[in-house]
Amino acid sequence: MLIEIADYLEEVYNFEKAENIYLSGYDAKWIKEGLNWINNSKYMLDYFHLAKYVKKATAHLSYTTPILWNYINKRDKESVKDLFDTIKKGYC
């Protein structure tokens, strides 16, 4: 099945001209398996599940939610990690 999907995608889309190919989903193994079938592809958590996890991580400290989104939107991984460390330690 994955071979047929990969073949179809290569026929329909010109992967040679694509700068980035993203496989988006919710961390399921079958989605990540596509990384082995589609050359130069990258996995990315979809927005729906990202929002779900952000809400869950900050539910007890709702004022940290916009701070976390700000770091995510800026692609500031270090600040995201630092905020999670702070939340886990209970310093907020």
Element layout with pairings:
Elements (H helix, E strand, L loop, with lengths): L1 H11 L8 E5 L3 H5 L7 E5 L1 H12 L6 H9 L3 H13 L3
Parallel strand pairs: 1-2
Describe this protein with a few key phrases.
mainly alpha; two-stranded parallel sheet; 5 helices
Please describe what this structure looks like.
The chain is built from 5 helices and 2 strands. By secondary structure, the protein is mainly alpha-helical. It folds into 2 domains: 2-45, no CATH class; 47-89, no CATH class. The chain is elongated.
In short:
This protein is mainly alpha-helical. The chain is built from five helices and two strands. Strands 1-2 form a two-stranded parallel sheet.
Broad shape: elongated
Biggest sheet strand order reads 1-2
Count of alpha/pi helices: 5
Sheet with the most strands, sense and barrel status: 2 strands, parallel
